[in-house]
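FAQ: What does the model actually see?

It sees only this:
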Amino acid sequence: MELSDLQTFAAVARCGGITRAAGELNTVQSNVTNRVRALEMEVGVPLFERHARGMTLTDAGRRLLPYAQRLSVLSREALSAARDDGVPKGPLAIGSMETTAAVRLPSLLTHFHHRFPDVQLTLQTGPTAILTEAVLDSSLDGAFVAGPINHADLITTQVFNEELVLLSARRWKTFAALRAGTPTSGPTILVFRTGCSYRQRLEQLMSEFGWPSAARLEFGTLDGIIGCVAAGMGVTLLPRAVVERSELSGAIRVHTLRSEQRRIDTLFIHRRTIHESCALRSFLSCLKNGKVHLAA
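And it is asked to produce this:
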């Protein structure tokens, strides 16, 4: 099997069609079609079901896909290892939860950038579930996520522990006032998109309040959530350090949770690989030497 055919096959599976895959791969549609057909002929069975809305994997395609993804990852790792001469340089893609990026990482990223200016550092924010998948498929070299994370292909380092608090507008003075509401009269919950560990904790808390179907509004930014909490739109669950550093802290009521509800570990995760790049090793060294703000 040609590696390029497997990579094209994986792109079509990911994109759900030839046109989108061609755009992602920066090639023409005919090239994508020909590579998929060549792979199907070599395997001897159809890998996709074609329909008006695009293409979906057959059973054979679903069995082949993990191997295609694994070989693509190994190919990228091999290229990186061959080019790695022990000097920290080149691209390094790091992921982080929005809250961690806002409060905990500025000192670390500044220190790392000044010490290793030849490393092309990029930071991508997102929820824990999406960041974890990105690390597993090597889209990211590592990420700061909420624990616990248990996966045989990941190495985890505990970085710090956050205290989660429930945030509301000032008019919601106590938990009792919040509990007095109903799924219709109580506050809306303001959350990041699905996959966020803080969102999961908040939904569990709302279930305890008797509001498992409380209205939800999804946000893409931390500032958007805090601003809407301060304006009285609803409640959210965030690390205490986030609201303490917010300019809107005076307009927000902080509700302390029970001890078993409020503690959550922030971990740095990266893949177990044959070769760990010099850039990533240098980043881990900065992290372990305390160049990140750890105050809880």
